[in-house]
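Quick check before the chapter quiz. The format below is the same one you will see on the exam, so make sure you can read both the input and the output lines.
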Amino acid sequence: MAAGAAQQQLELAFQRIQVDADTHEPPARRRVRHGEKLMEYMVGITLALFLCAAAAGLCMDRERVFYPAVTIAVASYYLAFAVVDGRNEVMLSEVLIASLFIVAAVAGFKRSPWFAVVALGGHGVMDAFHHHLVHNNGVPRVWPGFCMTFDVTAALIVTWVMLARARQARSRGQG
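Here is the expected output.
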């Protein structure tokens, strides 16, 4: 019974996304219930904390490619939303924006991981005003807040981890 209700809610959500995309107009503002607006931020922060802690705890982030790959994935989500929107001009705009972050992520892999960290944090800042750059009707209403808090939180955590590891390496080299 619960699976049927969940399936029905999922179908309704996809219908709302498709209706918004078919109209090619900005989605109507919905009423926000008490505490609902905070949820996208809480989930973004929690997911960033979990991802970074798990990556560090499992030593997955020791590989040079890890955070650049995360940055590329983060930069690519708006491309999926452009597919939902369905307009070529939206896809072109999203490809151009994503390309900037992907180039920075590649520089993070090839040159210095700090490029990827800055790109990840910069993507979070971009999330705050993305709707002024591109009118992508495929973007879920909660996405900018969620993605902004995830990106900025993850970038801050990665910065802290990288600085702590650099300090440890220096202290071992001196001792």
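If your answer matched, good. Residues 35-174 form one domain.
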